[in-house]
Design brief:
Length: 191
């Protein structure tokens, strides 16, 4: 199987469930289309990533994924700088937002995409806490400007849904999807 992503979090999550894979990141335009809803956006991104790599490897199973943070109907991407990260965290402080991931699997002319949503509630954060967290550098490459699997865990008061989805790949649903394409999980033998 090929993972069409360079995300270290997706790599770790797939390894955690015993999936053997290699990586070939897909370079695509990730700009949302005009009036495109969040579910349509993440599903399109996941499919485009998987399809792009599958074009070069039509006999192999390719997994593409995309994760976005949604707040008040707006897709919150990765911050362009520290100021934007601080502004995003101020907006999320004391509020509930949604983490939405899509997972697409493509092999030849066969493809399937699913999406999973998780509700995440932040505790109220002071401006000083936000500045200190942003100064760690962790928010820089993360949708919504935080990583629940890292130092950002202390920002979160609670979640409703899949924890692994918030990290970047909903494992239960991904394993079921891979099973449909005969990709084994819990694989223990070395290749």
């Amino acid at each position: 199987m090929i993972l069409a992503s360079s995300s270290p979090r997706r790599r770790e999550l797939l390894t955690q469930i015993g999936v053997h894979f290699r990586i070939q990141a897909a370079d695509i335009d990730e700009t949302p289309l005009a009036d495109e809803g969040a579910v349509a956006y993440v599903e399109r991104m996941a499919l485009e990533k998987a399809r792009k790599v599958a074009e070069e490897h039509p006999q192999e199973v390719v997994l593409g994924s995309d994760t976005s943070v949604i707040f008040s109907g707006e897709i919150l991407g990765k911050p362009v700088n520290n100021r934007e990260a601080e502004e995003t965290l101020q907006r999320l402080s004391g509020q509930t937002h949604q983490v939405l991931s899509a997972v697409a699997v493509v092999k030849g002319d066969r493809e399937k995409v699913i999406s999973v949503a998780t509700e995440v509630t932040f505790r109220s954060l002071s401006d000083e806490e936000i500045a200190r967290y942003v100064a760690t550098g962790e928010p820089a490459d993360k949708a919504g400007s935080y990583g629940i699997q890292g130092m950002g865990a202390i920002l979160v008061a609670g979640i409703s849904g899949s924890y692994s989805n918030v990290v970047g790949l909903p494992l239960t649903e991904t394993a079921a999807l891979l099973n449909e394409f005969d990709v084994p999980v819990w694989h223990t033998e070395e290749l």
